[in-house]
Backbone:
């Protein structure tokens, strides 16, 4: 999986019109339990789209534009 940082240009894999700049990275519980019972976490990107809207994109659904 790609590593994202603040300021990176990213887009959503399933919506090619959603392109913008990463403002913040957050971790949250994914609800997926791994073998042995431990819960995994997922990284969520807070992205300001070129249209000005804010969008949260899960890191595994983001693509780097640069």
Residues:
């Amino acid at each position: 999986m790609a590593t994202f940082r603040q300021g990176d240009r990213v887009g959503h894999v399933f919506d090619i019109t959603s392109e913008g700049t990463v403002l913040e990275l957050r971790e949250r519980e994914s609800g997926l339990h791994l073998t042995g019972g431990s819960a995994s976490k997922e990284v969520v990107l807070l992205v300001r789209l070129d249209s000005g809207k804010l969008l949260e994109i899960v890191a595994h659904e983001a693509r780097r534009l640069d």
Summary: The mean pLDDT is 88. Residues 9-64 form one domain. Strands lie at 9-12, 15-33, 39-49, 54-58, 62-64. The chain is about 0% helix and 65% strand.
